[in-house]
Amino acid sequence: MGYNKPETLKKYRETHKEQIKEYVETHREEYRRYQANYRKKHLGKIREIMREWRERNPEKIKAEQFVNNNHLPLAEFCELCPQDDLRKATEHHHPDYDYREIFVSVCVKCHKYIGMMKNE
Ligand SMILES: [Zn+2]
Q: What pTM does this model have?
């Protein structure tokens, strides 16, 4: 395979769906290893970023610790997804960090979405 123009690539993807799927499946382990290596290599930097984030968001950390320490259970399904019982709730979302006991059970996707809206 030489140089691929985007439209050629798109066509290739459409006509080789099965092969691509198979490639991804067989290389999954490799990819995971690559990611793990990457993390290991950049651990210092990642830790630094995490530390900065924690310093900038102490109220988020406290809210998180509060739900963990008190074992406040999540609802089974995300309460914000457009459909009921669509995705499993995996995280607590605090609408107001001053009220740590008030939270909404959300899935990762909705949580990210809320975060994005707040930053605007
Ligand atoms: Zn959701």
A: 0.56
- Cβ distance 12 to 4 under 8 Å? yes
**Contact between 34 and 41 (Cβ < 8 Å):** no
| Cα separation, 102 vs 114, whole angstroms | 16
Å from CA of 2 to ligand 1 middle: 42
Rounded-to-integer distance, Cα 109 and Cα 113, Å: 6
Distance 101 CA to ligand 1 centre (A): 20
Whole-angstrom Cα distance, residue 13 to residue 32?
A: 23
Give the C-alpha separation, 11 to 25, whole Å: 21
Q: Are 89 and 78 spatial neighbours (Cβ–Cβ below 8 Å)?
A: yes
What's the gap in Å between 8 CA and the centre of ligand 1? 36
Mean pLDDT by 10 residues, the chain (120 residues): 67 88 88 89 90 91 91 93 92 91 93 79
Q: In angstroms, what is the span from residue 11 Cα to ligand 1's centroid?
A: 33
Å from CA of 91 to ligand 1 middle: 10
